[in-house]
Amino acid sequence: MPVTVIVGTQWGDEGKGKITDLLACDMDIVVRYQGGNNAGHTVVIGDKSFKLHLIPSGIFYENVLCVIGNGVVVDPSVLLEEIDSLKESGYSCNGLKISSQAHLIFPYHKDLDAAQEQKHEAGRIGTTCRGIGPCYIDKYSRRGIRVSDIYNEKVFVEKLEWNIAEKSFLLNQFYGMEVEYDIDLLKEQYLGYAEAIRKYVIEDSSYLVNDAVSAKKKVLMEGAQGMMLDVDHGTYPYVTSSNPISGGACTGAGIAPNAISEILGVVKAYVTRVGDGPFPTEIKGGIGELLREKGHEYGATTGRPRRCGWFDGVVMRHASKINGLTGLVVTKLDVLSSFDIIKICTSYQYDGKEIKNFPSDIYKLDKCIPIYEELAGWKEDISKIKNYKELPLNARKYLDRLSALAEAPISMVSVGAERTQIIKL
Ligand code: GDP
Ligand code: IMO
Ligand code: MG
């Protein structure tokens, strides 16, 4: 089976963009299957750094098709900006394909996202305010506008009128905002986008992907966000509105589970989280700030400082089971160089008892205290190492412990942001 899935195993920003780019050179197709421009995937090639929000991270290879699948929510203005900026850097984007079944983000989605965050202070999620949640709400309430709709003016206008009436009511009457949408202007704008993206749109991207699978071509699925932001299996309600887990690749790209042969979990050597919500191993101040500075832990999408903490083995075990990980890619190991002691959380203490399973109830999670094991650190600069055996012994012991907690083998170790800073096992 030729399909590999890349998933984030923590709260996003594990380095999925770098790993997707790295593997993409041997692929025929790279597919984004969920999320939208809440994602920020960094690819560093030489001294150039690219931040991709919607376009799959295989776009730097001319011969690789890059598919935005049916499960993605697309803000066309962001997409066009991203295409332009890639073209300016010399990447043609000729291999880009957009599923006509993907849903479109409109300005009212972004306004609703912001309004919900402002009005519901106590229940604030700390979203990226890109309209992701409200767009998925429309998808599931069956009022959404898909890419295909902007090529059918009558249908498009009917749907747009309904949505504008509904959202204006909500925003003005419930959220107390003062918004007014000019339907003609929005119509012209989106019909303009329709023309601008027409050459990339395909009717049903699942056929493209499944034909490739039948022809034994190589397909890579690029997850966005991460396990703990999954709407079903993460720290609900402090999650995103899609399923980043490996199972999400089946619905978001239209492939069968038995087409998947490899599921790679991208694992940051410590843990970060942007936005609100529980984070048991968070370190406030001191070492947390040191990790943020050494790891340049600032959001690739919003620039917000990422909260940092020690590696969480309970989260890892949860991610390993739900995703069915066949291998791990450990990233940012270089950031841990220079610590005397490195801590790993192996279980939680709840109500006086030790627990190893991640609690699905965040109120229970709030009362969990991490139980740590301490490992000796290493001082050497590891950022130029290419061979696993050359890593300091303590770094290898650390990796062994991560692999044991995940019950999965390590496939690669990343020791720097640049494309070539990788150790393959
Ligand atoms: P993604 O959303 O999972 O693709 O991750 P982001 O791009 O949001 O965040 C990962 C950050 O770490 C980016 O700035 C990457 O360039 C950087 N990065 C990736 N791998 C490594 C690594 O092994 N070492 C270091 N120091 N930085 C890395
Ligand atoms: P990548 O793909 C990290 C977080 C937001 C917020 C929550 C809900 O780069 O790993 P949303 O805008 O999705 O409704 O916000 O999810 N979040 C991410 N955190 N990396 C991401 O993507 C994220 N996408 C969303 O900060 O806590
Ligand atoms: Mg990111």
UniProtKB/TrEMBL annotation:
Essential cofactor(s): Mg(2+)
Catalysed transformations (reactions): IMP + L-aspartate + GTP = N(6)-(1,2-dicarboxyethyl)-AMP + GDP + phosphate + 2 H(+)
GO MF term list: adenylosuccinate synthase activity; GTP binding; magnesium ion binding
SUPFAM superfamilies: P-loop containing nucleoside triphosphate hydrolases (SSF52540)
Cellular component annotations (GO), alphabetically ordered: cytoplasm
InterPro entries: Adenylosuccin_syn_GTP-bd, Adenylosuccin_syn_Lys_AS, Adenylosuccinate_synth_dom1, Adenylosuccinate_synth_dom2, Adenylosuccinate_synth_dom3, Adenylosuccinate_synthetase, P-loop_NTPase
Manner of cofactor binding, per the entry note: Binds 1 Mg(2+) ion per subunit.
Annotated binding of substrate, by residue: 300-306
Any one GO BP annotation for this protein: 'de novo' AMP biosynthetic process
Residues noted as binding GTP in the record, renumbered to the chain: 12-18, 40-42, 306, 332-334, 414-416
Subcellular location: Cytoplasm
Binding sites annotated in the UniProt record for IMP: 13-16, 38-41, 128, 142, 225, 240, 304
Keyword set, alphabetical order: Cytoplasm, GTP-binding, Ligase, Magnesium, Metal-binding, Nucleotide-binding, Purine biosynthesis
Enzyme Commission code(s) on record: 6.3.4.4
Binding site for Mg(2+): 13, 40
Main location as per UniProt: cytoplasm
Active site (catalytic residues): 13, 41, 139
The protein's annotated pathway: Purine metabolism; AMP biosynthesis via de novo pathway; AMP from IMP: step 1/2
Family assignment from sequence similarity: Belongs to the adenylosuccinate synthetase family.
Quaternary structure, from the entry: Homodimer.
Role according to the record: Plays an important role in the de novo pathway of purine nucleotide biosynthesis. Catalyzes the first committed step in the biosynthesis of AMP from IMP.
Protein name: Adenylosuccinate synthetase
UniProt source species: candidate division WOR-1 bacterium RIFOXYB2_FULL_37_13
